[in-house]
Design a protein that fits this description.
The complex is a heterodimer.
Chain A: H1 7-37, H2 40-57, H3 61-77, H4 83-97, H5 105-141, H6 144-149, H7 155-188, H8 191-195, E1 198-204, E2 206-210, E3 216-217, E4 231-234, E5 240-245, E6 258-263, E7 266-269, E8 280-286, E9 293-295, E10 298-302, E11 308-312, E12 315-316, E13 323-328, E14 330-332, E15 338-340, H9 341-345, E16 351-357, E17 362-366, E18 371-379, H10 380-408, H11 411-436, H12 445-454, H13 466-485, H14 498-502, H15 520-544
Antiparallel strand pairs in A: 1-18, 2-3, 2-5, 4-17, 5-16, 6-13, 6-18, 7-17, 8-9, 8-12, 8-16, 10-11, 14-15
Chain B: H1 6-28, H2 44-51, H3 56-59, H4 64-73, H5 77-93, H6 97-110, H7 115-132, H8 136-156, H9 161-177, H10 181-189, H11 212-230, H12 239-243, H13 245-259, H14 265-281, E1 287-289, E2 292-294, H15 300-308, H16 312-325, H17 327-338, H18 340-358, H19 361-381, H20 389-408, H21 420-425, H22 430-444
Antiparallel strand pairs in B: 1-2
Helix pairs in contact in B: 4-6, 5-6, 6-7, 7-8, 7-9, 8-9, 9-10, 9-11, 11-13, 13-14, 14-17, 18-19, 18-20, 18-22, 19-20, 20-22
Classes of the chains: A alpha+beta, B mainly alpha.
Chain lengths: 550, 446
């Protein structure tokens, strides 16, 4: 799917960025020290590095734990837990502010779950940001840091202890708020709403299209929707939406009498037709190896013992709702042969599903995640906990950045720095990537200013005279600077797991499901990736700075 | 450095605080609402709020959530509202309907007395969001959401008749005139969500189980009454037109019943009442015009008398206002529709078109010819009705249905037949009327 997390690519980028950063720092330090102190300079640098290695090798978990404990006590003394009161007040009155589309439990669940998770994030993040940015500067200001650094306590232990302490406070609040939020959701919802609290476990396939002539296409038709996420196929033609599923053999389908699927198709009518009925679709199952194909019968009713009573060869699309489809195991092909869906169509765990729209001149549209095999649901609490873990990881990232920023600048500046990094990471990272990867049409800052005043559209070629070349050179330098600092800003889009929970899906581990951008493993990897460099940076900063400074 | 001691400094602060209290008390002292007994009328701000009717309670019902939200945001309300508007647009683009509804709610909490916000968001839900859904019952849900939103807006802005008018207009136009009007009008008295509304009535939308036009009429009347009571004029349309809406809703009610094939006493009574209300109440209402105060019910005799009195300018304004509201046509229409011949003509034409659509061609021909005969009588008696396309359309559609029956029966079109002159005058537009005929045929077949 479109926004897959490229694990190997990420690792290569990570190693190259960290490697070149280390190389640059060591080269500049050695060269600088040589200029300042002559031959003894580089030796001093080497001795600092040697001391650093010694420091890190003698890291003591006991001392880290002592600092962690102190940090927790200090945060409690600073009334950090009062944020819980704000939380309680918000939830007391939240019902007033939230819409209650009374008769639609599906919509209710989305609103309440999204509200709880966003509120938790919005309360915890500013709190840990402030705590982490003001802790060390405050120690330095009141000189209490001297009582610590004069003890046999290494600088990295101070940084790690601080990070762990603030994270623990954030985690504690997260857990309390999580439990309260969960109870609140349950209390707000009626019985029907509570039934909707599930974590659906989807198996997605790769989507492809065939146009009206039956020719393979990557995309279907755009029916004029501004949002290009879904594309459409025309009814009554050879147009098809095709999903290729893999890995179905990993699931125990042998005992089942049907394959459970769910569809979230959209409809575009070019004429009104029968307004009382939805647009009808048909599903074909195809064996990807033998190309054997047949119309999939869909279970429409079961008897009291749960045995399949009736099937239908088509279904009506219900837009923006769950369209649960049970593809009956017993399939009859065009020649009247009775076949088995799992044995005759699933080949090495692979199955191709083709969807066609039946009425002519009507359209149905979908994107990749709009048709999936629905495995047995997990309890809602599983996806909810994963969603909270996403907020927890975000908290940890902010604490690390905040603590490290506070080792070299004062509280207010550290706060601003961290806030800026979080802001760019959460909202501007995609924009930053567009500029740095030269996908931006219309040039850099100066070129854009010129184009605005000269009324030139971004596609118009600029003259290749000297002033313009200089302008583009300056812009290029700006982009170069952005390129060098791009990886300073973590890409927080992977941490947003709320939509999955709110929409009743299990949070995916590996790859984000469009149009959402979050996934658990990428967020864990990003957190782990940023953790060490930031802590090392904090260590050196604390080691080399003048702690007497006010 | 300061030469003051700590205590002196604190005293200076205290004096400073007390001094600052004076303007705060003078400006911001709250109104205790005891004016009748000569109590405290509050500070300057409280007095000005009262003078310009800007008190929360004087604008409409005070919503504690909205008021507290605005207090908590201090001066950031504008920024918060902007962010929420942007969010709402994005949510609509990405079809996140539930969250869109919640965000629009929050926007109105922030801007509870900004009429345009209510209007735009309620319209958006009732018209734009509803149209995004494919199933009619889902569409109806969102029309109701829009209506509920309008009603909240009315509660928070009770002094503005405009909001009530808009609510009434959605009841009348969206439910009664949308493409899905047939289903919407049925759902209005029998909600499709039987689980949530076992009685079939959504208490927030139609507690008394009335027709949508009857509910709309009540809202239009309330709008007129609010404007009379508060003196705050509406800015939707010209006053003579605005005031006609309650009666127009009655007329629409009668027309809707005819569209649905109901020709009994209910419909006749509705036209009867509309005729009286239109000519006796609405027609006698005085409107301000550059020619002086005028009313629209002016007979030929009245007009002659006005001319004799030299009130030509005033009479001119009467005619202009009458044209603006199509007064003469609706007056005549209300009177004509009460007549038994008109009722019979409409019944026969409707039943004939239904029979033709269902394939009962013998019955259809008989009914259509009878209806055309009566319709022709009506037009001969009131030829000015043909000035309105509605009258022509009903005649043309009936004749298209009749001709298609003749064609199926391989019978020639006779040389002379009722409404022939209407057919000949509009022969060039048969294509347009044919579209309407097909549309109606589709409805009859459901």
């Amino acid at each position: 799917m479109g926004s897959e997390f490229d694990f190997s690519g990420a690792l290569i980028t990570y190693i190259s960025v960290i490697g070149s950063l280390l190389f640059a720092i060591i080269t500049v330090s050695v060269a600088g020290s040589f200029v300042v102190g002559g031959k003894t300079g580089p030796l001093a640098v080497l001795s600092i590095l040697r001391l650093a290695v010694e420091d890190w090798l003698s890291t003591s978990p006991r001392r880290i734990w002592a600092i962690t404990k102190l940090t927790i006590l200090e945060a409690i003394r600073r009334k950090a837990l009062l944020v819980g009161v704000v939380f309680a007040v918000l939830f007391l009155f939240a019902g007033w502010f939230l819409a209650q589309p009374a008769s639609d439990p599906e919509q209710q669940v989305k609103v309440y779950v999204a509200f709880v998770m966003r509120t938790i994030a919005f309360l915890i993040i500013p709190m840990v940001l402030l705590l982490s940015c003001w802790g060390i500067p405050e120690d330095i200001r009141v000189r209490s840091i001297h009582t610590v650094v004069t003890k046999p306590c290494r600088r990295q232990e101070i940084v790690i202890g601080r990070v762990l302490g603030f994270t623990a406070i954030g985690g504690l609040l997260l857990a309390i708020m999580g439990v309260v939020g969960y109870v609140w959701i349950l209390r707000q919802l009626d019985a029907k709403g509570r039934e909707r609290l599930v974590a659906r476990v989807p198996v997605y396939g790769k989507i492809a299209f065939k146009d009206r002539e039956g020719v393979d296409q990557k995309q279907g038709i755009n029916t004029g929707d501004e949002w290009m996420f879904r594309s459409f196929i025309e009814g009554g033609t050879k147009s098809r939406m095709i999903w290729n599923f893999e890995g179905l053999d990993a699931f125990n389908l042998e005992t089942a009498d049907h394959l459970p699927m769910e569809a979230g198709f959209q409809v575009f009518r070019s004429y009104k037709g029968n307004m009382d009925r939805g647009i009808t679709c048909q599903i074909l199952v195809v064996n990807p190896d033998t190309e054997k194909r047949a119309v999939a019968p869909l279970v429409t009713s079961r008897d009291q013992a749960g045995k399949i009573e009736q099937t239908d060869n088509a279904f009506e699309v219900k837009e923006f709702r769950e369209n649960l489809l049970q593809l009956a195991r017993r399939v009859v092909d065009d020649e009247g042969n009775e076949l088995d869906l799992f044995k005759d169509f699933v080949s090495k765990g692979r199955l191709r599903v083709e969807v066609l729209c039946l009425p002519t001149q009507q359209y149905i549209g979908a994107a990749g995640p709009d048709l999936f095999v629905r495995l047995p649901d997990k309890p809602f609490v599983v996806s909810y906990a994963k969603g909270l873990l996403g907020i927890g990881l975000l908290t940890l990232m902010i604490v690390v950045i905040g603590v490290c920023a506070s080792t070299f600048v004062k509280g207010p500046v550290a706060t601003m720095t961290t806030f800026f990094i979080v802001l760019v990471g959460a909202t501007g990272r995609a924009f930053l990537d567009t500029i740095v990867d030269a996908k931006w049409v219309g040039g850099g800052a100066f070129e854009s200013i010129y184009r605005i005043f000269a009324h030139l559209n971004p596609q118009t070629e600029l003259p290749s005279t000297l002033p313009f070349k200089v302008m583009q050179l300056v812009d290029g330098a700006g982009v170069g600077f952005l390129r060098s600092v791009r990886y300073l800003f973590p890409d927080f889009k992977f941490f947003d797991l709320t939509p999955y929970v709110a929409y009743g899906f299990d949070v995916p581990w590996t790859n984000p499901v469009p149009p959402n951008s979050g996934a658990l493993l990428p967020s864990l990897i990003i957190t782990a990736g940023y953790l060490l460099p930031w802590i090392v940076l904090g260590y050196f900063s604390l080691r080399l700075r003048e702690l007497e400074a006010k | 450095m300061s030469k003051l001691t700590g205590l002196q400094r604190k005293l200076v602060y205290l004096v400073g605080i007390l001094v600052l209290f004076i303007p705060i008390i003078v400006l911001g002292r709250p109104d205790e609402g005891r004016t009748a007994t000569g109590g405290d009328q509050g500070g300057t701000l409280a007095r000005m709020r009262r003078e310009y009717d800007l008190k929360e309670s004087s604008l409409g019902k005070v919503d504690p959530a909205s008021a507290s939200m605005n207090l908590v945001l201090l001066g950031m309300r504008g920024i918060a509202a902007n962010i929420l508007w942007q969010q709402a647009i994005d949510l609509q683009k990405t079809k996140n309907w539930a969250e869109l509804r919640a965000v629009t709610e929050s926007i109105t909490q922030l801007q509870p007395h900004f009429l345009k916000v209510w209007d735009m968001q309620a319209w958006n839900l009732a018209y734009n969001v509803s149209a995004e859904w494919d199933l009619v019952r889902d569409r109806y849900f969102w029309v109701k959401e829009g209506l509920k939103f309008y009603q909240q807006g009315v509660l928070q802005n009770q002094k503005y008749g405009e909001m009530q008018w808009r609510t009434g207009n959605t009841y009348s136009q969206k439910i009664g005139r949308a493409d899905e009007w047939k289903q919407f009008r049925q759902y209005f008295v029998k909600d499709p969500n039987t689980e949530a509304f076992p009685s079939g009535l959504d208490p927030e939308i139609n507690p008394e189980g009335k027709d949508n036009y009857q509910v709309a009429e009540k809202w239009f009347r309330d709008a007129n009454r609010t404007i009379d009571d508060t003196g705050i004029e509406q800015h939707v349309m010209g006053r003579p037109l605005f005031r006609s809406y309650p009666v127009r809703a009655m007329i629409e009610f009668a027309q809707a019943k005819q569209r649905e094939g109901v020709f009994g006493d209910i419909t006749k009574q509705a036209w009867e009442t509309a005729a009286i209300e239109w000519s006796q109440k609405y027609g006698k209402e005085e409107f301000d015009s550059p020619g002086g105060m005028v009313h629209l019910e002016v007979t030929e005799k009245d007009a002659k008398e006005m001319q004799d009195r030299g009130e030509d300018d005033k009479l001119n304004w009467v005619y202009r206002y009458q044209d603006m509201c199509n007064y003469r046509y609706w007056r005549l229409r209300c009177f004509v529709e009460r007549e038994q011949n008109t009722v019979d003509a409409r019944r026969d034409l409707y039943n004939g078109e239904v029979a033709a659509a269902k394939g009962d061609f013998v019955e259809a021909r008989k009914l259509l010819e009878s209806g055309m005969e009566k319709y022709d009588t009506m037009i001969r008696k009131y030829p000015e009705l043909l000035e309105q396309m509605e009258t022509v359309e009903d005649a043309m559609v009936a004749m298209i249905a009749w001709r298609s029956v003749l064609q199926i029966e391989s019978a020639p079109v006779p040389d002379d037949y009722p409404l022939k002159s209407v057919w000949e005058q509009n022969a060039g537009s048969v294509g347009v009327f044919n579209t309407e005929y097909i549309r109606r045929k589709g409805l009859y077949n459901k």
